[in-house]
UniProtKB/TrEMBL annotation:
Keyword Lyase belongs to the record: no
Chain segments annotated as transmembrane: 24-43, 122-145
Protein name: HAMP domain-containing protein
Entry keywords, A to Z: Membrane, Transmembrane, Transmembrane helix
Length: 246
């Protein structure tokens, strides 16, 4: 038979009732995870839409630059065919400026697309990290909160078994912060009522024993009454054995 864990060790057990605590902790985590999933889908769609528009803008800028380059080449060829050097110089300066502007526009669009893509990845990473952290935090909080409910229930079950054996003295109390204080107070009032009733019965039994002694009752009857009284008194005595506090 395994040796029971000491009270100070059992007091640190988080999963007093694993089935109950994990069930409702899992429900809490599942609801929050569902909300985060919906938010993640909405944010992800928004980020993907922005990235798609940036890609379209980049393709349009690349297309416009290619068309500009083709038009510039055709213009140069036409001017060259005219044989006018001054016109060629002026046109060349204008076309070069147009090409530089087209390249600058393309570079700006590409930079914007890269920035949007980086922001999209950052948002996705933050969502995943926040989801993991929130899940862990909710799990710990769920177990902690349910422990504040399960602990008193577990203690009252154990004390009810003691009371059921006739041991009516209860010296334990709930921990600070535990729930179900009203229910525990009702249980304590029940034990006090039972102790008062037991005390009254002992007083009645004492009177009966006294009358039996005066009437000369047989020793067997008196011994039986005294044994019954000892059993009843035992339930009102404080046990010195330590009980686990959970």
């Amino acid at each position: 038979m395994s040796t029971p864990a000491p009270p100070e060790l059992r007091n640190r057990i988080w999963l007093i009732n694993p089935r109950f605590q994990l069930k409702y902790t899992g429900m809490l985590v599942a609801v929050v995870a569902l909300v985060m999933l919906v938010l993640g889908v909405v944010i992800g769609k928004t980020a993907n839409t922005a990235a798609r528009y940036a890609q379209i803008a980049t393709l349009q800028a690349e297309k416009a630059m290619k068309e500009s380059q083709v038009n510039s080449q055709l213009t140069r060829e036409s001017v060259l065919m005219s044989g006018n050097p001054e016109l060629l110089k002026v046109v060349e300066e204008g076309l070069s400026e147009t090409d530089r502007q087209a390249e600058a526009n393309l570079q700006a669009v590409q930079n914007n697309r890269a920035e949007i893509e980086m922001q999209r990845k950052l948002v996705l990473g933050v969502l995943i990290f926040a989801g993991v952290v929130l899940t862990l935090v909710l799990t710990v909080m769920g177990v902690f909160i349910t422990r504040r409910v399960v602990g008193p229930v577990h203690k009252m079950k154990r004390l009810l078994r003691r009371v059921g054996t006739g041991r009516l003295v209860v010296t334990e109390r709930l921990r600070r912060g535990d729930e179900l204080e009203d229910l525990f107070d009702t249980f304590m009032q029940m034990t006090w009522s039972l102790k008062a009733l037991q005390t009254g019965r002992i007083a009645t039994l004492d009177a009966t024993i006294h009358k039996a002694e005066e009437s000369g009752a047989s020793p067997e009857v008196l011994d039986g009454l005294r044994v019954l009284r000892a059993q009843m008194v035992l339930g009102l005595s404080k046990r010195l054995t330590r009980t686990s506090i959970i």
